[in-house]
Amino acid sequence: MTAREDTPGHEADQYAPAPSVPPAPAATAGPPAELGTEALRALSHPLRIRILDLLPSHGPLTASKLGEIVGESSGSTSYHLRQLAKHGLVREVEGKGTARERWWERTPGGFSISTVGKESPASRQTAEAVNMEFLRLRHERVMAFVRAGQGADEETLEKWQGATTFFAANKWATPEQMEALVAAWDRFVAEHIDPLSSQEDVPGTLPFEVHFDVFPTIDPAGNPL
What we know:
Elements: E1 2-5, H1 37-43, H2 46-58, E2 61-62, H3 63-70, H4 74-86, E3 90-97, E4 102-106, E5 111-114, H5 121-149, H6 154-161, H7 175-193
Antiparallel strand pairs: 1-5, 2-4, 3-4
Helix pairs in contact: 1-5, 2-4, 2-5, 3-4
Keywords: DNA-binding, Transcription, Transcription regulation
Pfam families: HTH_20
InterPro entries: ArsR-like_HTH (IPR011991), HTH_ArsR_DNA-bd_dom (IPR001845), HTH_MetalResp_TranReg (IPR051081), WH-like_DNA-bd_sf (IPR036388), WH_DNA-bd_sf (IPR036390)
């Protein structure tokens, strides 16, 4: 299993196997760098995954604000932010904050996490657990959006109608055809999604999230999922 996590600098949310992450250059077609063993181990803490998951949608945050959101002390979130920064997963926002209040953001470039090629069953289990937690949080956001729609006024619903879609397709294809589909998506990201980075302060913009999943709907033994 391979999953990718993109950031505001290369925004597109996905998940896969992963070597330590020097941030990949933005707007480059192709998969992001894979997390190494040490970085993956550092990420295998539910609160760190939660922090990493929150930053793209909320924008830069301080340890104190993160603490309010996740229900932890600022000392706890500050510690976890430093651990994530140690492995290049978050970084301080330049020119913002003070020595006592630092602002943090996801490091541009994204990363991937894969269960393939891991040297031990424990490493594969760690990669799978991290991917599962990211996917769980992603599903929570989808459900939160659907629930929020129940309380929205007609004007808001009409505005969002053309800008929202949930798409699923079930086809039959060879692994090579599926790989070509993923490669085409990578090109689409570079052409259409990456240019939307760094628009947080542009009037009229909203935070949004794009999902794209390609995976066989069978288990390793060939049984339907």
